[in-house]
Amino acid sequence: MSQKSKTPLRRRFLKSAAGGAVATGALAAPMVSTAQTISLRFQSTWPAKDIFHEYANDFAKKVNEMAGARVRVEVLPAGAVVGAFQLLEGVAKGTLDGGHGVVAYHYGKNSALALWGSGPGFGMDPNMLLSWHYYGGGKELLDEIYKSINIDVVSYLYGPMPTQPFGWFKKPIARVEDIKGTKFRTVGLAVDMYTDMGAAVNPLPGGEIVPALDRGLIDGAEFNNASSDRILGFPDVVKNCMLQSFHQSTEQFEILFNRAKFNTLPAEVKSIIDYAVQAASADMSWKAVDRNSKDYIELKKAGVNFYKTPDAILRAQLASWDKIMDKKSSENAMFKKVLDSQRAFAQRAGSWQNDYTVDFKMAYNHYFGRR
Fold this sequence. Notes:
CATH topology of the domain at 38-160 and 250-290: D-Maltodextrin-Binding Protein, domain 2
Strand content: 5-15%
Strand order of the largest sheet: 7-6-8-5-9-11
Number of strands: 11
Order of helices and strands: HEHEHEHHEEEHEHEHHEEHHEHHH
Radius of gyration: 26 Å
Shape: globular
């Protein structure tokens, strides 16, 4: 074969080899969007020192690291751009690209929103309520509510919170009668519950609670957990904390995006956000066990007296909740729709949970209880 006849064959071979190399490279390193870095400005509803703001930063860190140079999420503390209770409007209007808070803070816009966190949840724990949200129709109901009040956001719920204390008080609450006349801070439908039980309620943002306690504007307050309560300074102004309550025993966090901004994101970035939410949810629940248990010990060292909330008060909470549910359901069709959905899911999931779950206190007391 002449040199002239070899040349076309050689060219075809080199072209084929080059194509194979490109194909192999594509398998090794998938082509992704390499446009200019997308900056997303977020705000939390928490003071910068609170562990909740740390959770917001944890989520942002996961997105930033997975997205590489394509996305940069910056998280500002409460009040940096809008007030804690104005976060939803700030995100919906585009003043912020996103935010980190809780659905109960939007309670004033539609009372049904408080059902994502307030109350006993028909016996569900926070993780079960998240299961209802993602697999039992809750997400669709939340989207329906936001649409009805002209709030155009993309909402992700995540991070099942530990059961919150009944509250911090200047004097221990031993009887239901002790609640009457108490000036108290809480949020969401817990406002209705404590009001029905006789308290004078003031729904202050997290950063304003301890100063109000210190100045005597309120007699008691609840916030959330041992770590947050310690960092915010509760033990500096009051020394009595009542543990266990049904007022907010099913709460979780919410990550918000402005929908118009979210819709401009590449598909792979949306997937990164979706999986970052799931990863942050697991990581937050693990971190909470570690940090809350350590801070619980530190609070005891600081002279805080912890009491179990008496069963009579817990039963009074449930009785108040039943009255509130009846009243709100008659006033708000969406409230009843959400409540009915939760009830149906809780009856099925709770039966399984209660039948299958062993009594962990038995094992704990076996190893660590008093002999």
